[in-house]
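Notes from hallway chat w/ T.B., transcribed later so I don't forget. T.B. wanted the structure written out for a chain they're using in a teaching module, and asked if we could keep both sequence and structure tokens in one place. Agreed to drop them here.
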Amino acid sequence: MAINRTSSHGEWSSRTAFILAAAGSAVGLGNIWKFPYITGENGGGAFVIIYIMCVILIGIPIMLAEVYLGKRGRLNPIASIRYISERENRSKNWQIIGLIGILAGILILSYYSVIAGWTMAYASRTAFGVLNNIDAAGAAVIFENFIADPERLLAWHTIFCIITALVVSRGVKSGLENAVVRLMPALLVLLVALVFYSAIEGDFANGIKFMLYPDFSQVTGKTILIAMGQAFFSLSLGMGALMVYGSYLSSDVSIPKTCVIVASLDTLVALLAGLAIFPIVISSGLEMTQGPGLIFQTLTVAFGAMPGGQLFGTLFFILLIVAAWTSSISLIEPMIIWLIEKYNVTRIQAAIFSAAIAWFIGIGTIISFNVGSDIKIFGLNIFDFLDYLTSNILLPMGGILITIYVSWLLSKEKVDSELKIKSRILRVLWYFSARVIAPIAVIFVMLNAIGINFDIFS
């Protein structure tokens, strides 16, 4: 029998709304710089092929399992697992899956908000022409001075937290859905516009070659691990967001079809981001530095020297703001509905409290770049520790537990009745991926991330 319970918090008005929300959760700052960069460094088109296979065999199976839990439980992540466990005669200890998701979400938001604040600051600077005709040395100085100022970082961090709280405080349809159905199309329009600009002003032919030309000589076991990790993290798995968003789905929506669309949209955005970025960087003769250096230094130099660069540079940073915003509202939502259901508070109160927690923890990230850079936790500054804890431990652990719980421990009849995978071959493939391939792959990714090397991947 398919799921017919409904969430007390409301539902998405349509499958499209869920797709945009889930895609917005998945599409973030990492899609804009990390995916294009690691693609170019790991065989271009060869890496894309491997990545897509990882999305199919690892990402989508875990996504189906996580959305299923939310749709069946219709409660906050902890309560949903507890509810399902009671009806399946499983240990209530499995609710740790929900706890991991809520904790990971709020910790990620705490530093994600700080970085998102950087994009807001740079959008303003680019719009006012502060970065016009700047050279690499000047861009580096501006960036270093910016992150060295804790008061300025705190101001932008505060603004972003307030904006996030305002959106989620309005509820599912008036807040979350109203935001994503506007922001995601806007993100796609901005991205396409930047691709066209890149095609006209940048070295588009070499940009495509850098990203998509398959060079299998660069593919190693390490490349496969990187692709597996990117497929997992890019889809926002294991942080409770998709479980919560799944709880707002109407009973007649197909989970498999919807998840495939979300994964495809996330991959499309990552590829478009690369086509927008690398032709510009290559034509400018600049170094394609990874991470913040690419966004806040290399690209500012490129845009500052190009015709129309002030306008399109501003649009690029607005694109980053939109991507960060759609991700942030999904990161905070699990904690909000947990607070509402656990302590019977209003959504506004829960939103304010959750944003305040993220804001306070985010201060640690801010001072990691300046006055508190000497503060170490296990040898890492506060920002690096939070990033390490969430990316390398909490999220992989959550993903592993989710797929084992759904594919091995829950009633196969009930899972099948909801997923409705008509093709026997696809159904067998999903179970094999969820039960064997995905857990083992994520374990390898997690162990590799924490520094354990495998000779098989040498």
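Follow-up for T.B.: DSSP finds 18 helices and no strands in the chain. Might be a good example for the class.
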